[in-house]
What does this fold into?
Amino acid sequence: MSQDKQVAFVTGGNRGIGYELVKQLALKGFKVILASRDPKMGHEAVEKLKESGLDVSFVMLDVDDQESIRQAAITVSEKYGRLDVLINNAGVYLNVNEKLLTMDPSVLEKTMRTNFFGAYLVIHSFIPLMEKQGYGRIINVSSGYGAMREMAQQGVGAYKLSKLSLNGLTQLVSAEVKGDIKINAVCPGWVSTDMGGPSAPRTPKQAAESILWLATIGPEGPNGGFFRDGKRIDW
Ligand code: NAP
It folds into this structure.
């Protein structure tokens, strides 16, 4: 079956920035698939959005589990037959203050697995759906912490390395894609979510704005860039 509406897929869509992105994309007229690793939280989030009349569905996806990513891509292909927008939003921020040299190496491994390798596997599994229609917009939700200059200062090492790698992935894939497929990275700023904490100055809605812009850019829009608030920032 092929869906007439454009289809968007958001990882980690059950809360925080991801939830807001699902909502805003649905308000823009997309059929939105809210991906969550926890079926209960995912279904609850979908039901809440459906109560407001939004066209949102749930798909189980744990970015740490390659088989769940493969299954999710099969489900989207069979149920909707297309994918127009993919947002790699799922992420973790673990043991932030520990130094790389003294922390348990499993923290780095786990952070890289979710924030970098998870996004890579999602792109790898879902891009055939975009290639089939010669169209797609992929946004990797990165962070200013992933900029190269951040590597000169200690702290937040695991998270910084994961987002640096995600940024590199964005550039490498942008050089590989063909047709009207574009992939960009975004720093959402410091956002008030479970990850950002209550003191963060930005709302998820503000954070979603530049991500939504990149989700809807035309064929002349950027490919392989790193943005904050719609402006290019240094890698
Ligand atoms: P959040 O409130 O902590 O939400 C994180 C989301 O990622 C949750 O839905 C979580 O699912 C999901 N997730 C984590 N590991 C996952 C996995 N293995 N598989 C599937 N989903 C997984 O964080 P947020 O602030 O909305 O952050 C969203 C993105 O923005 C992240 O990539 C983050 O690095 C980036 N970012 C945030 C800020 C900020 O200030 N908040 C700043 C810069 C960048 P569960 O509910 O199941 O845990």
Observations:
- The helical segments are 16-27, 39-51, 66-80, 105-133, 157-176, 204-215.
